[in-house]
Amino acid sequence: TLRLGLDEEPRMELAGPTSDERHVGDEGRPLLRALSMGQFELYYQAQFDCVSRQLIGVEALLRWQHPVHGLRLPGEFIGAAERSGAILQLDAWALRTACHQMRQWLDLDIAPPLMAVNVSAAQFARPDLVDFVAEVLRETGLAADRLELEIVERALLDPVRAAPTMRRLRAMGVRLAIDDFGTGYSSLGYLSRYPVNRLKIDRCFVARMGRDRTSVAITDAVVALGLSLGLDVVAEGVETEDQLEHLRLHLCPAAQGWLFGQPQPAANFAQLLRRERPGRGGIKQA
Ligand code: C2E
Ligand code: MG
Ligand code: MG
Ligand code: MG
């Protein structure tokens, strides 16, 4: 089944566990309940070309608007979501919501070239993932190459499972990025086996660039590796002009980070999109 339990109307009462909830561990129940009550939201963060400073894409990032505790970041709930299995519902909701948002921005003629969505290892391992992605693309009418799935290295440990999924997604036209590249179990050999489009340099390397030669070396090496393999590269967590300048000098094509803007709710992000719409020139200095 492709339903993934997402088509239900938001459930306002807190009666017994829903059918979804019976499949998740205790830690996951509050998350599913929050999801069904509409407490999750996607924030969007822009990605820019390092040289032209033009908008090249957007990453969707999950947020929990907790009625008591306020805005909660993934670091506070993703662990519990993964341990309990609730991550499957959260990821499916995020993918569908991000694609619907892209549809709306396309209709407003302010869409960014690309929407990037994070996919957990568990979601990536779902046998019905490819069908689910196809269904969401169909229901939103989104061209597959507008969607990029960000996969963590951990999801790629089993090449027998991962490679066919990646090939099927690529055959549909969906783009694939390796998130937090260099922080997981990196066997560089997998880059030749997997049909990846893009490497995302983890922000821990970018953050330490100013004070740690090893991080500079790793950042530069990932850029060079990506480019020589014909892959796109984007550096995460770019906060300063110095970092951007270094990346630019080392031919890193793209950057994402607070220098350009924090992740923002869709309504705020639409203002940035209106400023940056194609034909209006690149982003000005932050
Ligand atoms: P990620 O995919 O590597 O996302 C980058 C993280 O860096 C985001 O944290 C973003 O807000 C943060 N960030 C961006 N620019 C800067 C910067 O200049 N400086 C600093 N210090 N941080 C910056 P966030 O939103 O808290 O998300 C954390 C992680 O949670 C994500 O890391 C991703 O692994 C995971 N995540 C987020 N949304 C989803 C989702 O829908 N599904 C899954 N499975 N994981 C998600
Ligand atoms: Mg990501
Ligand atoms: Mg990342
Ligand atoms: Mg990261």
Automatic annotation (TrEMBL):
Molecular function as annotated in GO: cyclic-guanylate-specific phosphodiesterase activity
Top-level taxon of origin: Bacteria
Parts forming coiled coils: none
Pfam families reported for this sequence: EAL
EAL domain span: 24-277
SMART domains: EAL
Database matches in InterPro entries: Cyclic-di-GMP_PDE-like, EAL_dom, EAL_sf
Protein name: EAL domain-containing protein (Putative c-di-GMP-specific phosphodiesterase class I)
